[in-house]
Structure formats: C-alpha cells, structure tokens
Amino acid sequence: MRLIIAILLPFLVFFTIGRPFQGIFCLLLQITLIGWIPAAIWAVYALSQYNTDKKIAAMQRSQGG
User: Fold this and answer.
1) DSSP letter string over 18-60?
2) The overall pTM is greater than 0.85
3) pLDDT digits over 47-61, tens only?
4) Which of these, 52, 10, 46, lies nearest to 28 by C-alpha position?
C-alpha cells in the first residue's frame, strides 16, 4: 500500500515513516511537474530503506542483541 502512495503522492510516504521534514521538502519538489518523478523515486528509495531498517531491528531483537 505504501508503495502505491510513494508513486502517487510521494510526500505522504515520508509522513507515514516518521520523516516530516523530508516530507515537506518532497512536497516542494513535487509541486513542479518535472520534480514529480524524482520525488517518486526518492520516496520509493526511502520506503525501501525504512523496510530494511525495520527488518534489521527485528533480527537484532530476536538475537537478543
């Protein structure tokens, strides 16, 4: 679901993953038509990093360290 949001409304993804300042900057980038594509790519990349960080944290919790 977040991936669809990252493509359609890139700025909104940053608010859902707890990065409001990046969300505001992404919205400013997204306002221009040319900036929409880089904003969407940035949002998808940030979402993948967020998911990776969550997986690493879960693995560290399960190993007790």
Assistant:
1) T-HHHHHHHHHHHHSTTTHHHHHHHHHHHHHHHHHHHHHHHHH
2) no
3) 999 999 999 999 998
4) 10
